[in-house]
Every structure is written in structure tokens, then in C-alpha cells.
Amino acid sequence: MPSLRIFFVVVLLAAIVLAVPTPAKKRGVQKRSFKVPRQINTAHPTGPNGPAAMRKVFRKYNFEVKADFTVKEGFIGLSKQNQNASSSAATDGNQTQSGSVAANPEQNAALFLSPVDVGGQKVNLDFDSGSSDLWMFSTELSTKTIGQHTAFDASKSATFKKVNGAQWKISYGDGSGAAGIVGTDVVTIGGVKVQNQTVQLANQVSQSFVEDTNTDGLVGLAFSTLNTVNNGVQKTPAKTFFDNVMGDLDLPVFTADLDPDGTGVYEFGKIDTTKFEGDLAWVPVKAETGFWQFSSTKFAIGNQTFDNPQGSDAIADTGTSLLLVDQQVAEAYYSQVQGAQLNAQVGGFVYPCDATLPDMSVAIGDYMAKIPGSVITFATVDDANTTCFGGVQGNQGAGMQIFGDTMFRAQFVAFNGGNQSLGLGQKPLAQ
Ligand SMILES: *[C@@H]1O[C@H](CO)[C@@H](O)[C@H](O)[C@H]1NC(C)=O
Ligand SMILES: *[C@@H]1O[C@H](CO)[C@@H](O)[C@H](O)[C@H]1NC(C)=O
Ligand SMILES: *[C@@H]1O[C@H](CO)[C@@H](O)[C@H](O)[C@H]1NC(C)=O
Ligand SMILES: *[C@@H]1O[C@H](CO)[C@@H](O)[C@H](O)[C@H]1NC(C)=O
Ligand SMILES: *[C@@H]1O[C@H](CO)[C@@H](O)[C@H](O)[C@H]1NC(C)=O
Ligand SMILES: *[C@@H]1O[C@H](CO)[C@@H](O)[C@H](O)[C@H]1NC(C)=O
């Protein structure tokens, strides 16, 4: 079996700094909005890697990777007309499908970074609406572990203050994770400063973070309750950057406006109504979970809508590449794609790159978020570029759906921290 590799030319993007704070007067208090670009990391221009993206989301949410899992019998309302074209992703009977996320050394699942200034040092961090820690590689780590990452050096920051006794730790079910010390510093994003932002410096990271040379750390944008800081005795969750700036913004929101290539703009404090069609649909989230979480009990393939009352809740996650849906939903989708199959070696659904993909819609509360078939392919998996890895994948029965970039490429999303809701609008895409 030849090794599966990816060849992908990444367009090197100029590092355009969009960060322009736009102050505005409101009842005597200066409020504002600001933009932050999300860019391809030009230091490590490798293409997207389907298996790595799959491993990353399974690790992040502690989902069990099942060596074998059973395809559920007779999925509700599912058309069987196309079974022929999808024998290995069959939706009838209960034959066992192998769905392991293949162990493969290439990482590079996170390609997109945004510039952040911490105490005068520039680091490139992933804005992650699926977690709540602002943590980064630091010089507390050995130079060998740091490798090609940029590491924050607290001793070179005049404004860094260590919080004595405080620690943080993110641990995943597979034993991997990151941990370290805690401090506060002046954090500037898009020209807007937070004077006393809690920053978490890694002094331990597991191999998966070392290998993921694209990420120097994260800016967690989920709710502060999930922050992992503790004082050595008990949890003392720190406020996220968004929680700290929210009160100073024109609107208590940040928005994700991503292009089909995954680059784009995060904007804080403002909703740019030129970026989507019609009005935003607002859906309340279950903020008590700490996530931007909502129910999702319907989906559509092309024009056909399916009720899925047992559908797992879903999370809007800018830190995940894929649209990870309940396994039956992924099976239903790929049953409509000629030649699609669940490939055990690659660890997900693949199909011939020349297949026509139907549009997919997933429910976000009562709103149907449509993703045109033209933006669903995530990556190729072979040297000849004949086999493609889908941007829609199954969660192997994990009980949670994770809506990542595959959705954001087609949907403008406003995260409203004021009334804890998501605003969704269809992005105009050339189809
Ligand atoms: C596969 O696609 C990549 C990226 O578009 C390209 O650089 C490469 O030449 C292609 N390989 C073949 C065999 O067409
Ligand atoms: C199923 O596949 C067989 C063999 O490839 C083909 O002859 C037959 O027409 C297909 N049936 C349908 C309903 O597509
Ligand atoms: C499904 O699994 C059950 C229990 O393992 C078994 O009895 C049944 O024959 C299987 N059905 C099919 C269609 O394979
Ligand atoms: C800064 O943050 C730390 C940790 O959250 C807190 O203990 C301290 O009181 C804050 N200082 C100021 C000046 O707000
Ligand atoms: C939340 O705020 C937005 C924007 O101000 C508003 O349009 C929407 O109706 C509100 N949503 C909920 C669920 O309250
Ligand atoms: C889907 O619906 C649209 C609008 O109702 C229609 O124009 C289109 O032909 C339909 N497509 C299919 C495949 O039925």
C-alpha cells in the first residue's frame, strides 16, 4: 500500500493587517469595534490533512476512536435509492464498518492563525470558539520542545505578572494535553488592549502539540466557565479575552466571516451586514454548558429534509476544520455521493474527487445552515489527487456534533455574548 500523502499548494497570503480600531462615542463612553485577520500560516505552508483534522477533533473533545463501529439499522426516512453507489457506506443492516482514525505522523490540521500581542511580543494564535483558555508556547518549555514554535518569554515582558500558585491544565482522554503557569499581561488584539488579561504559559505540552507546528497556542472564545485555571486547591476560572472586552464594544458580539479557502476575518463589536444574504437568524445557545451549543434535530441533503429527533446537540467551533455530524447523518449524506466510502485506513469518508457533491444543510436550532456541495471537499488524500476527504465526517456515535470550518465557509456567524445566542446568515458563494 503506498503511503497516503497530500500535495497541496498553499497560496501564500500577504500579511495584511486589517486591524483598525474604530472608536465611536456612545453616551460619553468610548465604545468600539475591531477586526482581526485569520491567515494561512506562511511559515509552514502545508496543505490540509484530512486524517490529522479528524484526529484533532476527536482528541479535543475526548471522543472515543472506535476501531470498529456498527452502522445503525434503517436510518429514519433515509432514501435507499442510491445504496448501490455507496456499498461501503451502506445505511441498511448492521454490518460493522471500520472507522479508526489512522495513526499517521503528519499533523498540520490547524492552518489558520491570527496575530496577538502579549506584553509586546507577537504570537500567532488560533481563535477557538470551542475552548476558553488563552494559552501559548512559552520559554518555560525546553528549546527542543519549542522547536519551530514561537514561544512567549515572560522575562522579556515589562508588564507580565505571575499569579503565584495558579496553574492550568488541559487533558485529553488519550493522555495528551498541555499545562503550565498563569500570569496576567497586556494583551492587544486588533489594536484593542486588555490591561489585565489572564495568560497561560505552557511548561508541558504533549507530542501532538509539538508536532502541530502551525499553532503556538489558542485564544479561547467559548464561555469563561470552561477556563481551566486553578489556584492549586480549586478551580478559579479566568475571564476570556472576549469577556474582558465585551463591555467596551459597540455590540457584545464577535463574528466569524470565513472564505471558502478558510482565511477570513474575525470582527469584534460589529456585525457587517454586507457579508451575508438577508437578515441574521438568531438562535439561543445553551451557555450553561460553557459552549456555543444548540440542538440540531434536522438535516437536508440537496432539497430533501430529514427529521432527526435523536440528533445530538452541536457546538459552533472555529477551532475545528471539519463539520463532524452524527454518524448516521454522515452515512446518509455519503449514500448520495457516487463512489463514496468510509475508508478505515484514511479514517473517514472519501470519494472520487470528480464526484458531484449535493448540498448539505444542518439545523442550528430552527435555522437550516446550508453548505453548498462545492465547498464540502476538505483535502485530497493521494498523490494523484483522485481521492478526496470530505469536510463532512461522522462522530462515530460520540453524542456531540462539532460544526467547524466546513460550516463557517458557507455561513456568517455572530457569537452574541450579551444575550447568549448565535446569529446566522448565508454567505453569498459562487456556486
Ligand atoms: C495535486 O494537487 C496539487 C495541489 O493542487 C498539485 O500541486 C499537484 O501537482 C497535483 N498532483 C497531480 C498529480 O495532479
Ligand atoms: C447497481 O450496480 C450494478 C453494478 O454496478 C448496476 O448494474 C446496476 O444498474 C445498479 N443499480 C442501480 C439501481 O443503480
Ligand atoms: C445485526 O446484529 C444482530 C445482533 O448482533 C444480529 O442478530 C443480526 O443478524 C444482524 N443483522 C444483520 C442484517 O446483519
Ligand atoms: C488582574 O487579574 C488578576 C487575576 O485575575 C486579579 O487577581 C487582579 O486583581 C487583577 N488586577 C487588576 C488591577 O484588575
Ligand atoms: C439577541 O440579540 C440580537 C442582536 O441584538 C437580537 O436580534 C436577537 O433577537 C437576540 N436573540 C435572542 C435569542 O434573544
Ligand atoms: C431544489 O429546489 C430548488 C428551488 O426550489 C429548485 O430550483 C431545484 O431544481 C431543486 N433541485 C433538485 C435537485 O430538486
Task: Please outline the helices and strands.
Layout (H helix, E strand, L loop, with lengths): L21 E5 L2 E12 L9 H11 L7 E3 L25 E3 L13 E7 L2 E8 L5 E4 L5 H4 L14 E11 L5 E13 L2 E14 L1 H5 L5 E4 L20 H6 L6 E6 L5 E5 L12 E4 L8 E2 L3 E4 L2 E4 L6 E3 L6 E3 L1 H8 L6 E3 L4 E5 L7 E5 L2 E5 L5 E4 L6 E4 L1 E3 L6 E3 L1 H4 L2 E6 L4 E6 L5
Parallel strand pairs: 6-11, 7-10, 18-27, 19-26
Antiparallel strand pairs: 1-2, 2-5, 2-13, 3-4, 5-6, 5-9, 7-11, 8-9, 9-10, 12-13, 12-28, 14-29, 15-18, 16-17, 16-22, 19-27, 20-21, 21-25, 22-23, 24-25, 28-29
The site of one 2-acetamido-2-deoxy-beta-D-glucopyranose has 2 residues, from loops.
Task: Name its key features.
single chain, 431 residues, mainly beta, Cathepsin D, subunit A, domain 1, 2 domains, six-stranded mixed β-barrel, five-stranded mixed β-sheet, 6 helices, globular, disordered N terminus, binds 2-acetamido-2-deoxy-beta-D-glucopyranose
Short description:
This protein is mainly β and 431 residues long. It contains 6 helices and 29 strands. 9% of the residues lie in helices and 37% in strands.
**Helix segment tally:** 6
Q: List low-pLDDT spans.
A: 1-29, 69-110
The bound ligands are: 2-acetamido-2-deoxy-beta-D-glucopyranose
Instruction: State the domain count.
Output: 2
What do we call the CATH homologous superfamily of the largest domain? Answer: Acid Proteases
Global geometry: globular
**Total number of beta strands:** 29
Strand content: 35-45%
3D structure, described in words:
By secondary structure, the protein is mostly beta strands. The chain has two domains: 52-106 and 274-430, Beta Barrel (Cathepsin D, subunit A, domain 1), CATH 2.40.70.10; 110-248, Cathepsin D, subunit A, domain 1, CATH 2.40.70. Helix content is 9%, strand content 37%. The protein has six helices and 29 strands. It has helices spanning 50-60, 143-146, 207-211, 241-246, 327-334, 405-408, and strands at 22-26, 29-40, 68-70, 96-98, 112-118, 121-128, 134-137, 161-171, 177-189, 192-205, 217-220, 253-258, 264-268, 281-284, 293-294, 298-301, 304-307, 314-316, 323-325, 341-343, 348-352, 360-364, 367-371, 377-380, 387-390, 392-394, 401-403, 411-416, 421-426. It has a six-stranded mixed barrel with strand order 5-6-11-7-10-9. A five-stranded mixed β-sheet has the order 15-18-27-19-26. Strand 9 (177-189) and strand 10 (192-205) form a beta hairpin. The radius of gyration is 21 Å and the shape is globular. The two termini are 36 Å apart. One 2-acetamido-2-deoxy-beta-D-glucopyranose (NAG) binds at residues 163, 184, 196, 198, 238.
